[in-house]
# Entry
Amino acid sequence: MADAKVIPFDEGERRSRRATDVGPVPEPVEQAEEAGGTAGGTAGGAGWDAALARGLAFVRRRLSGDYEVDDFGYDEDLTDEVLMTLLRPVFERYFRVEVRGIENVPDEGGALIVANHSGTLPWDGLMTQVAVRDRHPAGRRLRLLAADLVFQLPVVNELARKAGHTLACAEDAQELLERGELVGVMPEGFKGIGKPFAERYKLQRFGRGGFVSTALRARAPIVPCSIVGAEEIYPMVGNARTIARLLGLPYFPVTPTFPWLGPLGAIPLPTKWTIQFGEPIETGDLPPEAAEDPMLMFQLTDQVRETIQHTLYKLLVARRSVFF
# Structure
Protein backbone atom coordinates (compact mmCIF):
# COMPACT_ATOMS: atom_id res chain seq x y z
CA MET A 1 0.00 0.00 0.00
CA ALA A 2 1.40 3.39 -0.93
CA ASP A 3 2.16 5.89 1.79
CA ALA A 4 0.05 8.99 2.30
CA LYS A 5 1.43 11.95 0.35
CA VAL A 6 1.22 15.67 1.16
CA ILE A 7 0.44 18.27 -1.47
CA PRO A 8 2.82 21.26 -1.08
CA PHE A 9 1.26 24.24 0.64
CA ASP A 10 0.48 27.37 -1.38
CA GLU A 11 -0.20 30.49 0.64
CA GLY A 12 -2.30 31.95 -2.16
CA GLU A 13 -4.84 29.17 -2.17
CA ARG A 14 -5.80 27.04 0.81
CA ARG A 15 -7.03 24.03 -1.07
CA SER A 16 -7.98 20.67 0.39
CA ARG A 17 -4.82 18.72 1.18
CA ARG A 18 -5.43 15.06 1.81
CA ALA A 19 -3.53 11.88 1.17
CA THR A 20 -5.21 10.49 -1.94
CA ASP A 21 -2.49 8.11 -3.08
CA VAL A 22 -3.43 5.29 -0.76
CA GLY A 23 -4.62 2.79 -3.37
CA PRO A 24 -7.34 0.17 -2.99
CA VAL A 25 -7.66 -1.29 0.47
CA PRO A 26 -9.55 -4.26 1.86
CA GLU A 27 -12.60 -3.95 4.06
CA PRO A 28 -11.81 -3.21 7.73
CA VAL A 29 -11.81 -6.01 10.22
CA GLU A 30 -13.29 -5.83 13.72
CA GLN A 31 -10.85 -5.20 16.51
CA ALA A 32 -10.41 -7.90 19.14
CA GLU A 33 -12.25 -6.86 22.30
CA GLU A 34 -10.22 -6.34 25.40
CA ALA A 35 -10.84 -9.12 27.90
CA GLY A 36 -11.96 -8.03 31.35
CA GLY A 37 -10.36 -4.60 31.49
CA THR A 38 -10.47 -0.98 30.46
CA ALA A 39 -8.82 0.79 27.55
CA GLY A 40 -5.59 0.92 29.52
CA GLY A 41 -5.23 -2.89 29.58
CA THR A 42 -5.69 -5.67 32.14
CA ALA A 43 -3.70 -6.97 35.06
CA GLY A 44 -2.25 -10.41 35.76
CA GLY A 45 -1.53 -13.35 33.49
CA ALA A 46 -4.81 -13.07 31.61
CA GLY A 47 -3.95 -9.46 30.80
CA TRP A 48 -0.57 -10.40 29.37
CA ASP A 49 -2.15 -13.18 27.33
CA ALA A 50 -4.75 -10.79 25.94
CA ALA A 51 -2.08 -8.20 25.12
CA LEU A 52 0.03 -10.83 23.35
CA ALA A 53 -2.98 -12.03 21.38
CA ARG A 54 -3.80 -8.48 20.31
CA GLY A 55 -0.20 -7.88 19.29
CA LEU A 56 -0.05 -11.02 17.18
CA ALA A 57 -3.40 -10.20 15.57
CA PHE A 58 -2.10 -6.71 14.74
CA VAL A 59 1.07 -8.09 13.13
CA ARG A 60 -1.00 -10.54 11.03
CA ARG A 61 -3.21 -7.72 9.79
CA ARG A 62 -0.22 -5.58 8.85
CA LEU A 63 1.49 -8.41 7.00
CA SER A 64 -1.65 -9.41 5.12
CA GLY A 65 -2.78 -5.85 4.35
CA ASP A 66 -6.05 -6.49 6.19
CA TYR A 67 -6.51 -2.91 7.41
CA GLU A 68 -7.91 0.33 6.03
CA VAL A 69 -6.48 3.79 5.35
CA ASP A 70 -8.90 6.58 4.44
CA ASP A 71 -8.35 9.26 1.80
CA PHE A 72 -6.81 11.59 4.40
CA GLY A 73 -4.18 8.97 5.26
CA TYR A 74 -5.78 7.98 8.59
CA ASP A 75 -4.74 4.48 9.67
CA GLU A 76 -7.26 3.60 12.38
CA ASP A 77 -5.73 0.20 13.11
CA LEU A 78 -2.21 1.58 13.65
CA THR A 79 -3.53 4.47 15.73
CA ASP A 80 -5.58 2.28 18.08
CA GLU A 81 -3.08 -0.54 18.49
CA VAL A 82 0.24 1.33 18.52
CA LEU A 83 0.00 5.11 18.88
CA MET A 84 -2.74 5.10 21.54
CA THR A 85 -0.96 2.29 23.40
CA LEU A 86 2.22 4.38 23.56
CA LEU A 87 0.39 7.54 24.65
CA ARG A 88 -1.79 5.97 27.37
CA PRO A 89 0.97 5.60 29.99
CA VAL A 90 1.88 9.26 29.47
CA PHE A 91 -1.79 10.23 29.80
CA GLU A 92 -2.60 8.06 32.82
CA ARG A 93 0.64 7.88 34.81
CA TYR A 94 2.87 10.77 33.78
CA PHE A 95 0.46 13.68 33.33
CA ARG A 96 -2.31 11.91 35.31
CA VAL A 97 -4.95 13.64 33.22
CA GLU A 98 -8.33 14.28 34.81
CA VAL A 99 -11.11 14.54 32.24
CA ARG A 100 -14.28 16.50 32.99
CA GLY A 101 -17.42 17.15 30.99
CA ILE A 102 -16.81 14.37 28.46
CA GLU A 103 -20.61 13.94 28.31
CA ASN A 104 -20.71 17.27 26.45
CA VAL A 105 -19.05 15.63 23.45
CA PRO A 106 -21.83 14.19 21.23
CA ASP A 107 -22.19 10.41 21.07
CA GLU A 108 -22.50 10.54 17.29
CA GLY A 109 -22.31 12.96 14.39
CA GLY A 110 -19.87 15.71 13.60
CA ALA A 111 -18.70 18.22 16.20
CA LEU A 112 -15.89 20.75 16.39
CA ILE A 113 -13.82 20.69 19.59
CA VAL A 114 -12.03 24.02 20.10
CA ALA A 115 -9.23 24.08 22.70
CA ASN A 116 -6.52 26.34 24.05
CA HIS A 117 -2.98 25.55 22.88
CA SER A 118 0.17 25.68 25.01
CA GLY A 119 3.27 23.89 26.18
CA THR A 120 6.03 24.63 23.61
CA LEU A 121 5.49 21.18 22.06
CA PRO A 122 1.94 20.04 21.17
CA TRP A 123 1.44 17.39 23.83
CA ASP A 124 -1.96 18.93 24.58
CA GLY A 125 -3.40 17.84 21.23
CA LEU A 126 -2.23 14.25 21.73
CA MET A 127 -3.57 14.08 25.28
CA THR A 128 -6.94 15.41 24.11
CA GLN A 129 -7.04 12.63 21.53
CA VAL A 130 -6.50 10.02 24.23
CA ALA A 131 -9.08 11.69 26.49
CA VAL A 132 -11.78 11.47 23.84
CA ARG A 133 -10.89 7.91 22.80
CA ASP A 134 -10.64 6.43 26.30
CA ARG A 135 -13.06 8.49 28.38
CA HIS A 136 -15.97 8.99 26.00
CA PRO A 137 -18.70 6.35 26.47
CA ALA A 138 -18.82 5.76 22.71
CA GLY A 139 -15.01 5.59 22.42
CA ARG A 140 -15.00 8.27 19.76
CA ARG A 141 -11.94 9.31 17.76
CA LEU A 142 -10.68 12.88 17.46
CA ARG A 143 -9.23 14.15 14.18
CA LEU A 144 -6.95 17.12 14.79
CA LEU A 145 -6.27 20.01 12.41
CA ALA A 146 -2.51 20.67 12.37
CA ALA A 147 -0.25 23.46 11.16
CA ASP A 148 1.67 23.29 7.88
CA LEU A 149 4.98 22.75 9.68
CA VAL A 150 3.79 19.38 11.01
CA PHE A 151 3.49 18.06 7.45
CA GLN A 152 6.88 19.39 6.40
CA LEU A 153 8.85 17.44 9.00
CA PRO A 154 10.11 13.96 8.08
CA VAL A 155 8.67 11.08 10.13
CA VAL A 156 6.34 13.49 11.98
CA ASN A 157 4.50 14.04 8.69
CA GLU A 158 3.77 10.33 8.23
CA LEU A 159 2.82 9.75 11.85
CA ALA A 160 0.48 12.75 11.85
CA ARG A 161 -1.34 11.50 8.75
CA LYS A 162 -1.67 7.99 10.15
CA ALA A 163 -2.95 9.37 13.47
CA GLY A 164 -5.80 11.12 11.66
CA HIS A 165 -4.47 14.67 11.54
CA THR A 166 -4.92 16.87 8.50
CA LEU A 167 -3.92 20.38 7.51
CA ALA A 168 -5.92 23.18 9.07
CA CYS A 169 -7.84 24.16 5.95
CA ALA A 170 -11.58 24.79 5.85
CA GLU A 171 -12.34 22.28 3.07
CA ASP A 172 -10.88 19.27 4.89
CA ALA A 173 -12.39 20.28 8.22
CA GLN A 174 -15.85 20.70 6.70
CA GLU A 175 -15.70 17.35 4.91
CA LEU A 176 -14.69 15.54 8.09
CA LEU A 177 -17.52 17.21 10.02
CA GLU A 178 -20.04 16.29 7.33
CA ARG A 179 -18.85 12.69 7.55
CA GLY A 180 -19.79 12.72 11.21
CA GLU A 181 -16.25 12.96 12.62
CA LEU A 182 -15.07 14.76 15.73
CA VAL A 183 -12.64 17.46 14.60
CA GLY A 184 -10.25 19.24 16.96
CA VAL A 185 -8.81 22.70 16.37
CA MET A 186 -6.56 24.94 18.46
CA PRO A 187 -7.01 28.41 16.95
CA GLU A 188 -4.11 30.01 18.83
CA GLY A 189 -1.67 27.96 16.74
CA PHE A 190 2.02 28.78 17.25
CA LYS A 191 1.07 31.95 19.11
CA GLY A 192 -0.26 29.69 21.86
CA ILE A 193 2.42 27.05 22.22
CA GLY A 194 5.24 29.52 21.61
CA LYS A 195 4.24 32.20 24.11
CA PRO A 196 6.55 32.96 27.07
CA PHE A 197 5.93 31.41 30.46
CA ALA A 198 5.01 34.80 31.91
CA GLU A 199 1.88 34.81 29.70
CA ARG A 200 0.71 31.32 30.64
CA TYR A 201 -3.02 30.67 30.49
CA LYS A 202 -3.65 33.98 28.75
CA LEU A 203 -5.33 33.07 25.48
CA GLN A 204 -3.88 34.54 22.32
CA ARG A 205 -5.96 35.78 19.39
CA PHE A 206 -8.26 33.17 17.81
CA GLY A 207 -7.75 34.37 14.26
CA ARG A 208 -10.62 35.57 12.07
CA GLY A 209 -13.17 32.95 13.06
CA GLY A 210 -12.52 30.45 10.31
CA PHE A 211 -13.36 27.54 12.61
CA VAL A 212 -16.76 29.07 13.36
CA SER A 213 -17.52 29.46 9.66
CA THR A 214 -16.61 25.81 9.08
CA ALA A 215 -18.88 24.63 11.90
CA LEU A 216 -21.74 26.76 10.60
CA ARG A 217 -21.42 25.35 7.09
CA ALA A 218 -21.37 21.79 8.41
CA ARG A 219 -24.14 22.63 10.94
CA ALA A 220 -21.95 21.02 13.62
CA PRO A 221 -21.93 21.97 17.32
CA ILE A 222 -18.86 23.69 18.76
CA VAL A 223 -17.51 22.21 22.02
CA PRO A 224 -15.14 24.51 23.98
CA CYS A 225 -12.27 22.64 25.65
CA SER A 226 -9.99 23.99 28.39
CA ILE A 227 -6.64 22.35 29.18
CA VAL A 228 -4.72 23.10 32.39
CA GLY A 229 -1.27 21.64 33.05
CA ALA A 230 0.32 21.87 29.62
CA GLU A 231 1.65 25.39 30.15
CA GLU A 232 4.18 24.20 32.74
CA ILE A 233 5.68 21.15 31.00
CA TYR A 234 8.35 23.29 29.28
CA PRO A 235 8.51 26.71 30.98
CA MET A 236 9.61 28.89 28.08
CA VAL A 237 11.77 31.65 29.52
CA GLY A 238 13.34 32.76 26.25
CA ASN A 239 13.17 32.53 22.48
CA ALA A 240 16.35 32.27 20.39
CA ARG A 241 14.92 34.00 17.32
CA THR A 242 18.14 33.87 15.28
CA ILE A 243 18.35 30.09 15.64
CA ALA A 244 14.64 29.82 14.87
CA ARG A 245 15.09 31.73 11.60
CA LEU A 246 18.06 29.59 10.60
CA LEU A 247 16.06 26.41 11.22
CA GLY A 248 12.88 27.74 9.63
CA LEU A 249 10.94 27.39 12.90
CA PRO A 250 8.36 29.79 14.35
CA TYR A 251 10.37 29.93 17.59
CA PHE A 252 13.30 28.21 19.31
CA PRO A 253 12.45 27.72 22.98
CA VAL A 254 14.83 28.29 25.85
CA THR A 255 13.67 26.59 29.05
CA PRO A 256 15.35 25.86 32.41
CA THR A 257 16.43 22.47 30.97
CA PHE A 258 16.67 23.04 27.19
CA PRO A 259 19.09 23.32 25.44
CA TRP A 260 21.35 23.11 28.50
CA LEU A 261 20.72 19.41 29.17
CA GLY A 262 20.68 18.38 25.52
CA PRO A 263 18.12 15.62 24.69
CA LEU A 264 17.24 15.28 28.38
CA GLY A 265 15.93 18.83 28.24
CA ALA A 266 13.19 17.66 25.87
CA ILE A 267 11.59 15.54 28.61
CA PRO A 268 8.46 17.39 29.80
CA LEU A 269 7.92 18.11 33.47
CA PRO A 270 5.37 15.73 35.09
CA THR A 271 2.63 18.26 35.72
CA LYS A 272 -0.92 17.32 36.72
CA TRP A 273 -3.41 17.97 33.91
CA THR A 274 -7.12 18.68 33.72
CA ILE A 275 -9.05 18.64 30.44
CA GLN A 276 -12.59 20.02 30.66
CA PHE A 277 -15.11 19.91 27.82
CA GLY A 278 -17.74 22.64 28.03
CA GLU A 279 -21.36 22.65 26.96
CA PRO A 280 -21.72 22.56 23.17
CA ILE A 281 -22.74 25.67 21.24
CA GLU A 282 -25.35 24.52 18.75
CA THR A 283 -25.26 25.81 15.18
CA GLY A 284 -27.94 23.65 13.55
CA ASP A 285 -30.71 26.21 14.11
CA LEU A 286 -28.87 28.99 12.29
CA PRO A 287 -29.60 29.62 8.60
CA PRO A 288 -27.03 28.51 5.96
CA GLU A 289 -26.15 32.12 5.12
CA ALA A 290 -24.98 32.63 8.73
CA ALA A 291 -21.52 31.40 7.69
CA GLU A 292 -21.17 34.55 5.57
CA ASP A 293 -22.12 36.95 8.37
CA PRO A 294 -18.85 38.42 9.73
CA MET A 295 -20.54 39.93 12.78
CA LEU A 296 -22.06 36.60 13.79
CA MET A 297 -18.72 34.82 13.29
CA PHE A 298 -16.98 37.42 15.46
CA GLN A 299 -19.60 37.01 18.20
CA LEU A 300 -19.38 33.21 18.21
CA THR A 301 -15.58 33.29 18.10
CA ASP A 302 -15.52 35.65 21.06
CA GLN A 303 -18.07 33.49 22.91
CA VAL A 304 -15.94 30.36 22.48
CA ARG A 305 -12.75 32.18 23.48
CA GLU A 306 -14.31 33.73 26.57
CA THR A 307 -15.81 30.39 27.61
CA ILE A 308 -12.40 28.69 27.41
CA GLN A 309 -10.62 31.57 29.20
CA HIS A 310 -13.19 31.70 32.01
CA THR A 311 -12.97 27.93 32.50
CA LEU A 312 -9.17 28.09 32.61
CA TYR A 313 -9.34 30.65 35.42
CA LYS A 314 -11.80 28.49 37.38
CA LEU A 315 -9.60 25.40 37.00
CA LEU A 316 -6.48 27.33 38.03
CA VAL A 317 -8.15 28.67 41.18
CA ALA A 318 -9.33 25.20 42.14
CA ARG A 319 -6.10 23.24 41.56
CA ARG A 320 -3.94 22.45 44.57
CA SER A 321 -0.56 22.30 42.87
CA VAL A 322 1.12 22.29 39.47
CA PHE A 323 2.35 18.75 40.09
CA PHE A 324 -0.32 17.17 42.34
